[in-house]
Amino acid sequence: MSLTLSFRxxxxxxxxxxxxxxxxxxxxxxxxxxxxxLNGFPHFNLSTWRVAGVLQRIAIAYLTAAIIxxxxxxxxSVLWIAGLLVGYWILMRFIPLPGIGMPxxxxxxxxxxxxxxxxxxxxxxxxxxxxKTRDPEGILSTFxxxxxxLLGVVTGLWLKPRxxxxxxxxxxxxxxxxxxxxxxxxxxxxxxxxxxxIWNLWFPINKKLWTSSFVLFTAGCAVICLxxxxxxxxxxxxxxxxxxxxxxxxxxxxxxxxxxxxxSSLLYSIPIHGGRRVLTLQDYLYxxxxxxxxxxxxxxxxxxxxxxxxxxxxxxxxxxxxxxxxV
Length: 327
Fold this sequence. Notes:
Elements: H1 2-12, H2 17-40, H3 54-94, H4 116-124, H5 142-159, H6 170-199, H7 212-235, H8 244-251, H9 253-269, E1 271-274, E2 277-280, H10 281-289, H11 296-320
Antiparallel strand pairs: 1-2
Helix pairs in contact: 1-5, 2-3, 3-5, 5-7, 6-7, 8-11, 9-11
């Protein structure tokens, strides 16, 4: 969404598409390198250094979606979304795996160790993989992730402000446009969720493989959440202390993500010796502070909330100092 809004404002200022592409390539490269650094931290061991990752996928999807957005327009973006999702399903369903057979016939279509995504990663993905023999941010599943990004682009095109001629009823016109946008997003969200659930019958919803049904279902959920937030905070202007935590994270989003990854890696890499057992600092703190909470799912939730709050504090400090780290 932000890609659509930022491109429009920069084009309005007279910047060329060539300039925007150069900026996008530079930004994508920086995001990719930050992801590589986080994957190597703190030991930077080449034998276990993972090349794929969340920020790396964001960088690739952002760059691809930016090029499509600049040169294809809205209709082109929609066609790209359809082509990526249908094409991914065809590849995963109808390409036989050497020595294994046809997905959906000889092996389950989403067998974790016998699908086309796994096969391509095993052959061509450089570096260590997140799950040893497969990676949830692998090569082939990045293509439907680009479709996810383009769905955000289309949403941004729908939501962006439109020029309105000045009239005596401009306030009523803006209100009517806002209602139309909210209703449109809610309708689109419901349609995407239904489409995802229907496609789930043939191509199951699966995050690690980023299946086409997963793309539609999660995009539908996101659009509905966005519509609700847009109505409450932008249209009705209901803002206050309860929106501040989200605002703080949003102003330094990549910094917040990087901080969470660095902290998690540190907690996981520091050993704590307790008698015959050696625990990571993460496990030690969890068992010490939250292990006695029943049920265990509730203890896990409290740990997650505490972790998020700990990450929020330095980001809040940056916010108070008006320091915004941009890539």
